[in-house]
Amino acid sequence: MKLTSKGRYAVTAMIDIALNQDKGAITLSLISERQGISLSYLEQLFAKLKKADLVTSARGPGGGYRLSRIPGDISISEIIRAVDESVDARKCGGKANCHGGDECLSHELWSELSTTIDSFLKSITLQSVMDKKQSNVKEIAFG
Fold first, then answer.
1. Three-state secondary structure along the chain?
2. Is pTM beyond 0.85 here?
């Protein structure tokens, strides 16, 4: 099980939009600059995020991306799945053929872990991440 840069970057970019879209649509070049993510990589990710209906886009002056729904309605799990990432801890991907075509001895353990991870990521929304981020900033500012 490994969450690759694809999933991490997609989540980071979506948080960036959620935190900044009140100023208008967010361009990928802005996200690239602020988050240190390659512009061409962001273009690939946002094609998938748009296809999954997590963002909307507008072209031309003042164009860019916005969330397609409020941050409280977009889970981290949705974002990760939209970019074809998996957090499945099973070697077999759930096919139960991990031990020479049969289910391995620890299959149920990894299945439960995968379910727990997915439930955890489904329970976290962009809004909850934003709230935590803003709470941490206030704690630093006001000690």
1. CCCCHHHHHHHHHHHHHHHHHHHCCECHHHHHHHHCCCHHHHHHHHHHHHHCCCEEEECCCCCEEEECCCHHHCEHHHHHHHCCCCCCCCCCCCCCCCECCECCCCHHHHHHHHHHHHHHHHHCEHHHHHHHHHHHHHHHHHC
2. no
